Amino acid sequence: MDDMISWMQEGGQVGIFDATNSSRARRNMLMKMAEGKCKIIFLETICNDERIIERNIRLKVQQSPDYAEEPDFEAGMRDFKTRLANYEKVYEPVEEGSYIKMIDMASGHGGQLQVNNISGYLPGRIVFFLVNTHLTPRPILLTRHGESRDNVRGRIGGDTVLSSEAGQLYSKKLANFVEKRLKSERAASIWTSTLQRTILTARPIVGFPKIQWRALDEINAGVCDGMTYEEIKKNMPEEYESRKKDKLRYRYPRGESYLDVIQRLEPVIIELERQRAPVVVISHQAVLRALYAYFADRPLKEIPHIEVPLHTIIEIQMGVSGVQEKRYKLMD
Ligand code: F6P
Fold first, then answer.
1. CATH 3.40.50.1240 occupies which residues in the chain?
2. What is the DSSP string of 46-79?
3. Does residue 280's CB lie within 6 angstroms of at least one atom of ligand 1?
4. What is the spatial distance between Cα 324 and Cα 102, in angstroms, rounded to a whole number?
5. Is 34 helix (H, G, I), strand (E, B) or coil?
6. What's the gap in Å between 226 CA and the centre of ligand 1?
7. Per-residue confidence in pLDDT tens, the chain, 332 aa
8. Across-strand partners of 312?
9. What are the residue ranges of CATH 3.40.50.300 in the chain?
């Protein structure tokens, strides 16, 4: 807690103090520590559904590092239940300060949200995020579109179709892959940008709804749209150098920066968090770098340099113990 408070004082915006804090005395102590330094919002999740509790305990014992050394599954279950019973003995419901209480919301059907003494933009976004997030395991498949004509020419941006060989071949290979991988997943969906190259990449995939998102469009290169990197270097050397110096913050004249892209992806991220069925996201290099960084928990400054090659699927498995990743290279 001390560590977190000093990080907040150095400019941190949101810190998560992940602990049980089930007694009033304990919460009072935390509020005292934070007094005049940062704002505290308590988050209490209440679940009265025995089946969900049982499922969560099972997942916890199976997947949590706490039980990695416990070879006997039943012993792990007993241990966790004892732990729960001990917490129950000292538990006092949250009734003080600012808090968000999520009651029976885990199933995704109904439930209740109590919000007390919360105001301001960021706390409001936190409430919105929490209402939409859950732990139901499901995969998210991220891929760039198949090679486009502009990719072949080395031109950035634009809205060209797929190259007639590699690009179109990838769209077929991707359709095969998705069909096999999501065979039994009726509720899955395919998300693309509004640019032709992603829509055409999705075209051979059948049997799933397709949704176009403007927020998934590639970074807007503004006055540089349609140019090659060499042309930018030659004709606009200052722009080229500024981007090289700070690729994250650099904004193309009349276009976007990576920070702009990250910001416009917020609704996409919330919607991905909310989905309980698999989603295939067919988008573009800069956008996928930002999305991937969110799920893989990569630092902001790395985002513009993350490798997201063409013709490769990044499968992100969302679950109780965080996020796992697999890459499938369908073509060179
Ligand atoms: O070259 C393909 C592309 O998707 C361009 O349209 C886009 O400007 C670029 O990648 C983004 O990558 P970087 O930020 O490395 O220039």
1. 139-329
2. E---HHHHHHHHHHHHHH-GGGTT---HHHHHHH
3. no
4. 26
5. helix
6. 11
7. 999 999 999 999 999 998 889 999 999 999 999 999 999 999 999 999 999 899 889 988 988 888 989 889 999 999 999 999 999 999 999 999 999 999 998 877 788 999 999 999 999 999 999 988 887 889 999 999 999 999 999 999 999 999 999 999 999 999 999 999 999 898 999 999 999 999 999 999 999 999 999 999 999 999 999 999 999 999 999 999 999 999 999 999 999 999 999 999 999 999 999 999 999 999 999 999 999 999 999 999 999 999 999 999 999 998 766 788 999 999 98
8. 329
9. 1-132
To test the ligand 1 pocket, which listed residue (152, 156, 228, 259) has its Cβ within 8 A of the most ligand atoms? Answer: 156
Domain made up of 1-132: CATH architecture: 3-Layer(aba) Sandwich (3.40)
CATH of 139-329 among 3.40.50.300, 3.40.50.1240, 3.10.350.10, 3.30.530.20:
3.40.50.1240
Torsion of CA 125, 128, 130, 131, to 10 degrees: 170
Q: Which pTM does this prediction carry?
A: 0.87
- Where in the sequence numbering do the catalytic residues fall? 18, 47, 145, 218
